[in-house]
Amino acid sequence: MDRLFPSIRKGADAVAAGMLAANFATFLFQILARYVLHLSVGWTIEVTLTMWLWLVLFSCAFVLREKDHVKFDVVFHMVSPTTKKVFALLSAASIVVALIAAMPDTWDYVTFYKIKRSATLRIPLIYVFWVYLLFAVVIVLRYAWRIYDILNGRDLAEDERDILSD
Q1: Cα angle at 104 between 103 and 107, to 5 degrees?
Q2: What's the rounded Cα separation, in Å, for the pair 101 and 36?
């Protein structure tokens, strides 16, 4: 999939880097305000927490590749290629089914927050949490694509070769 969308991938990397830079700058400002200027600035905590949530979910959906995710693959590496294919299909299908099954309740929960506001900045909380909906949709699409790749004979060992070449 990386080969099909290189400019989108670079853009996602840039957005994630921007979020990380904004988060770090806000964190440094918080330290400066508290310990040097002796000011109490509550908004910085809200911004860093929100930016961290966005950074983690956005990066997991758009930046991390399959090989970048943490895996418990000791058993996976000990089985035959056919069993590896079954394991990969089962894990991808489980992720797709679980996220789709949770989607109606997730939608209700996130859209409920349009009436609530953050404590300091008074931002509607739907803007804070809608990134999870984006994350869930993108992960469903990515793992559905993975199922398609596996069923069409994509070599699972390609992920392992990519790790060795990094």
Answers
A1: 80
A2: 50
Which of the four pLDDT bands, split at 50, 70 and 90, describes residue 155? low
Task: Flag whether pLDDT at 104 surpasses 60.
Answer: yes
Alpha-carbon distance of 43 to 26, in angstroms, equals 9
Rounded distance between C-alpha atoms, residue 71 and residue 63, angstroms: 17
- Residue 110: which residues within 8 A CB-CB, separation 6 or more? 126, 129, 130, 132, 133
- pLDDT category at 84 given cuts 50, 70, 90 is confident
Nearest partner of 124 among 115, 133, 112, 132, judged by Cα:
115
Q: What is the pTM of this model?
A: 0.81
Which backbone phi and psi does 65 adopt, to 5 degrees?
-95, 170
Domain-wise residue ranges, the chain: 1-64, 66-166
Contact 124, 116 (CB under 8 A): yes
3-state secondary structure 84-142: HHHHHHHHHHHHHHHHHHHHHHHHHHHHHHHHCECCCCCCEHHHHHHHHHHHHHHHHHH
Instruction: Kindly report, residue by residue over 111-146, the tens digit of the pLDDT.
Output: 998 889 988 899 999 999 999 999 999 999 999 999
